[in-house]
Amino acid sequence: MDAGGTCPNRVPHANTGGCRYCNARGAGTGLHHQGLSLTQQWQHWLARYARRSPNALFLAYLQSFSNTYRPPRELAIILEEIRQFKDLAAIALGTRPDCLDDEKLDMLAAARHPLDAGPGSGPILDVWLELGLQSASNATLLRINRGHDVETLERAVHAAHARGLLLCLHVMHGLPGETAEDFFCTIDCVNALPVQAVKFHNTLVLDGSALALDWQTGAYSPPARAETVAALAEGLARLRPDIVIQRLTADAWPGELLAPAWAADKSALRTDIIQNMVDCGWTQGFLYRPPPHHDGCDMATFHPGGSHTK
């Protein structure tokens, strides 16, 4: 769903150009700009997917841009509208870790409770925060122009967790300048944080992104398909076994994917990742080793390859 808005990393006064892998669409549906209210969007998608899965439960997922990068009053109005949706099972908001303060976190925590009821009464509604970690390397975050550091992500995760919010981190493979070991260090970081889910993204070169210019000039080349399959398979084996995998591969809107061409077939990629794990005798968490401390992404405690037994 699309609540409108933008991102602090791409507004005109920021003069940063946004994250290098992101284009003007911002991973959104664009339905807000088509004049559809959130209630109309909910009805649209519910009618479409309920026919396909009549017994399914549905959550309202605000995906486009940074959904807490807005005035608190505007966020409150959005949450109030969503909580009145028919057959709502949960709420999920995608945002950046540098777009959360105590007031907004408290507002999100309050949305867990039924309308017209205070804390302690009625069923609790799951509220998910989806935060972009992307990489646990500050050098990489600077290289891709994320505009925040890993420490900001850690603080946001702990503050949200303390309020009973559920957390899903986004992690990317194939970022410029990163190796497989860097990716595994990011997995270690996820393991050390109080999160419930992760979404993986293989890096895509999208038309209109800064990364597209890097690719066109030869400054960036996406990893080979076999490299991506092997890294994601091992990453899953290293991932804490209780963490839910909400997404395994990324996709692009029609006409936007410039490279790699093989990324267009998500189903085949997923099949090969699973087959790689089967061939290695791995399941999720097979290579997981608890870090010395479970309180954050202290890269000094991470040893790339240390739990690698293949």
Characterise the protein shown here.
- The chain has 310 residues and is an alpha/beta fold.
- It has one domain: TIM Barrel (Alpha-Beta Barrel).
- It is 33% helix and 15% strand.
- A 6-stranded parallel β-sheet has the order 1-2-3-4-5-7. Strands 6-8 form a two-stranded antiparallel sheet.
- It is globular.
- It starts with 37 loop residues before the first helix and ends in a 30-residue tail after the last helix.
- This is Putative Radical SAM domain protein.
Any chance you could write out the topology, listing elements then pairs?
Layout: H1 38-52, E1 58-62, H2 72-82, E2 88-95, H3 102-110, E3 126-134, H4 138-143, H5 150-162, E4 166-173, H6 180-191, E5 197-202, E6 205-206, H7 210-216, H8 225-238, E7 244-247, E8 257-259, H9 266-280
Parallel strand pairs: 1-2, 2-3, 3-4, 4-5, 5-7
Antiparallel strand pairs: 6-8
Helix pairs in contact: 2-3, 6-8, 8-9
Organism: Megalodesulfovibrio gigas (strain ATCC 19364 / DSM 1382 / NCIMB 9332 / VKM B-1759)
Protein name: Putative Radical SAM domain protein
GO molecular function, one term: metal ion binding
